[in-house]
């Protein structure tokens, strides 16, 4: 890829970009403002590199701007994260007609201060420019192979170097990779590379007469002659160099494999069953190099070939970095994903949202993960929240220890007996992956656990259900552990779980279960309507985006609508008048943890997409992109939070970390699939083709790629007619895809006609409201030649009105707090109490309690002045040994400036005053106190705090 050609376009639109930011900051996304909607990027430059590595193996990154490397050899980033690799760099030697030019540290060339590179998972492309008439380009590759997974879960990264002689005379060129093994010395493999107990770098080249030299190069001979020197001593720094003659205008390739091997934890990776040394892994990497490069480039090229907005393609594709940064694949086959930000692993409530793209792209790992969830299911049927061993304290590294396969009663980060969504999420995930893969063997293994999870929901209805509104909940709990009302979400999501159970039990021939869940489904649908719509109990507020998550999911999975269209319109009007996405995007200019990006984009954004409110969805998701990608530090390090608006873009990242990269960020793929319009039931061979074309695409979609376990495919769609109701669709698949029934969008009143490859087909109109469809019994096979579908008719004249403009200002917390940090600040007066509560003692003293794992309180906009504070004093009663308070600045994913260890004091109101050092705090900050401990119950009570 020629990266440089994009820059003139990017620079021309930069002025418009700044205007769009100002529009956002002034409480309005002006939908007529071209700056907001027209800004686009075809590449992702200026990061510290794409994380490259195998599933559950860690990764390395190359910072093209500085020419340096960072590595995470033990997964996941949440626990271990990336650290700089000292003295690791690419080097170059050239000699043209006696004129020698070298580079000790190769870096990307810059255009207007920005490096010419492109970090798009699973690739990293770098343009090093030309030296002495030799053009140097790099392609970094992360292993991706969903046909032979043994190629994918190995700890290695691949780098292809392209050397091109741009002139008409021969040139001697040499390229080297220098590495530091730190604790273990390197040994040389003549003409192949170097290896130690922890690292190996091997090389091959396309040039038949190239020379390979290896060694420690202590004399720095490479920069004088292009050949490494080797001393007799073993060294921790090694170098591998390839030297060749390039004929005029000739291009040759060099292939490096960098492999690593963790020796600290014998159970850390499945790869330890396959290989004993990094050298063996690197040798394997050279054998499969071309295959892995092909796989990676096919994915990226296919995604980017469409005319979908570049920002949407890049944002969506780069969420797959979680395959590397968040994955864990233990030696005995346990698969889990790290939550990110909170160092909690598994996290069913978040992961079910993101699991969709995992079973589409790499279903083997998704099945393995679900088997782990099943085998650790509690005896009462409850699905756990996490897999952590919670007795290791707050040290992130120790939290990478996971419970054993069949540890059913292990302690979660908090008591999760009231969490309904965990059981729903498990059922949803098994249903989805079974439908996508048609793997009956795997499904049959999980079916007993699915039934137990479903029964657990019914048990929770008995325990926490409403008597007035049967099958809805009162006092239940779920993912929203930091505030908000969890009951509507649990009720809404359970309706989808019941609907799935009806279908699955019917397939299994279990008629009694079908009747049981038909009744449950009917009851919750009716009660939810009566409670939250008819009787007006829906109250807009924190996390209310979740109110109709079940309806969204039913639309998304093509299960038909659960509640009527007028109910959907009612809920959407309430949400619109709270969030105002058309005018505010995600809102919260300073960013917030009060709403969560992946949740609001999926639950609410997906509902907007599926109900024709494209402008509102576009404003929300484009805003999320700008907040992330205008600050390059966030591209591979996106927390759960809504990020703050970026008033001044940071185009070049200095952040190598990924510990905040959140587990549910890949949920954005669900919106991508709704836009492309591909949904599939591989079991029944049913296929939904229902593209949604954003208005910026001028009513035509071209080459939109979809991924499925059956292979890749592509969709074209042209829409026309008074209401853009008519569609001409072409779908092509790389592998034959048998289809029984085709489902198309029904936006018509009458006079409908459907033709496939020029032949008119009968059809049936099914569904209702926003889920109306045209069903065509086709019984054919789609191949790479594709089929052409044309559907026309008299339009349904439904117009979504432009939302009413808000009369109130955007939610903001920018005013300075009147509390002084140097005087006593009562805990109950904190601006935010996330998961905690306030109680009053018999003596009248009020304090904060229910301080469970990962709960927090926040004092907003506290002015520390210029002198600053270096110590925190806190009055606390400790209820559990080994509890801690983490002092964080600005938001929950901000800078940690201190820790306070809280001893068990012997009772609820047995108070002690602790003094804890903190890093110097000056100026205005939010102060967040986060709670950690070994218990799933209340860890402590907080009375007051004071800084000095």
UniProtKB/TrEMBL annotation:
Keywords: Glycosidase, Hydrolase, Signal. It holds the Pfam family DUF608. GO terms for biological process: carbohydrate metabolic process. Its EC number is 3.2.1.55. SMART domains: CBD_IV (SM00606). It is an enzyme of class 3 (hydrolase). PROSITE patterns: CBM6 (PS51175). Residues 820-948 form the CBM6 domain. This is Arabinoxylan arabinofuranohydrolase. The lineage of its organism: Bacteria, Pseudomonadati, Bacteroidota, Bacteroidia, Bacteroidales. The gene is xynD_8.
